[in-house]
Amino acid sequence: MERWSDFRSDTVTKPTEAMRRAMAEAEVGDDVLGDDPTVQKLEALAAEIMGKEAALYVPSGTMGNAVAVKVWTRELEEVIVEARSHIYNMESTHLTFISRVNPRPLPSRRGAMDPEDIARNIRQASVHTPRTSLICLENTHNNWSGAVIPLENMKATREVADRFGVKIHLDGARIFNASIASGIPVKEYAKLVDSIMFCLSKGLSAPVGSMLAGPKDFIDQARRVRKALGGGMRQAGVLAACGIIALTQMVDRLKEDHDRAKRLAKAIAELPGIILNPEEIETNIVIFGLNHPRWSIPAFLEELKKRHILALPVSRGIRFVTHKDVNDEDIDRAIEAFQQLLSF
Ligand SMILES: Cc1ncc(COP(=O)(O)O)c(C=O)c1O
């Protein structure tokens, strides 16, 4: 059977052999009753890596974000979000559906909102207006082609948040990608926010799960909200065991994904019809526009599929994501297909 080159997402990564062994050997208990030593080990490790008091294992990044917003906010409040952020666009409206808060989307420069623009948009409670209680950031920023949000921008945002007494939650689904690309330890990013969610199940290749980290009283409350949302998991140690491997063995190799994404971007950017600045590719996500006389986006994706190459359409074009389960040959095969299909 011919190999598939699957660039749809880093969520397609399969668990490693070490993970499968760890699953078989994991010591487990009923985590809802506080009895699973492997989950506890993962939570302690996650808190330590992020420099936070405590952490909570959640089934998905979406649940981690939803729980964080629910704990930090009340009804009749407003949350500042970046206009293209995952939390605002791709999480089935939990800000309104679960937390019953008003999202206030702001524009950005490649995912980094202007801190003074944030300051101008923070509102005080009145009979007409909601109080702003939370700012949500995303680093790296998925829909801005995996852009790394600069630490300086986050520092300035922290100053604004402190000036107005507002909390910050970071959707750090790919915070390790940000750290590998910038050379800045994840703790430095986490220090600037009140809570951080990060995913084990994307580039780090665990089969399931994300972590939410923050102050102890926040995590205590988050544990209750997780249960209310149906996220209490019993012998979850079989999954948490993979999370421990994700955090201890899988972080450094993210650089390979970044190198491959940059190579792909450089090669295809020169081709007719591709709208892409390869200099902007910093991590593992390559988003580009397509304006070609022979191809619509659906037809082009269909043609790639015939060649066993998978990618996803996004609002601004097509998204390719590199990860552990695509290698240099997959990149070569994609570049060759692009050259054949787009050249005149
Ligand atoms: C930036 C970002 N945040 C959150 C999530 C949600 O993670 P999950 O798919 O585990 O719910 C994703 C998933 O792709 C994401 O890209």
Descriptive overview:
The relative contact order is 0.18. This protein is α/β, with parallel strands linked by helices. The strands form three sheets. A seven-stranded mixed beta sheet has the order 2-8-7-6-5-3-4, with helices on both faces. It has two domains: 5-12 and 253-342, Aspartate Aminotransferase, domain 1, CATH 3.90.1150.10; 17-249, 3-Layer(aba) Sandwich (Aspartate Aminotransferase, domain 2), CATH 3.40.640. The chain contains 14 helices and 13 strands. Strand 5 (131-138), helix 7 and strand 6 (167-171) form a beta-alpha-beta unit. Helix 1 packs antiparallel against helix 11 (237-249), helix 2 runs parallel beside helix 11 (237-249) and helix 12 packs parallel to helix 14 (328-342). It is globular. The two termini are 31 Å apart. Pyridoxal-5'-phosphate is lined by residues 60-62, 86, 138, 142, 171, 173, 199, 201, 210.
Give me the count of strands.
Answer: 13
- Tally of structural domains: 2
Strand order across the biggest sheet?
Answer: 2-8-7-6-5-3-4
Question: How is the biggest beta sheet arranged?
Answer: 7 strands, mixed
Q: Any idea what the radius of gyration is?
A: 21 Å
List keywords for this structure.
344 residues, Aspartate Aminotransferase, domain 2, 4-stranded antiparallel sheet, binds pyridoxal-5'-phosphate, globular, alpha/beta, 2 domains, 7-stranded mixed sheet, 14 helices, 42% helix, Aspartate Aminotransferase, domain 1
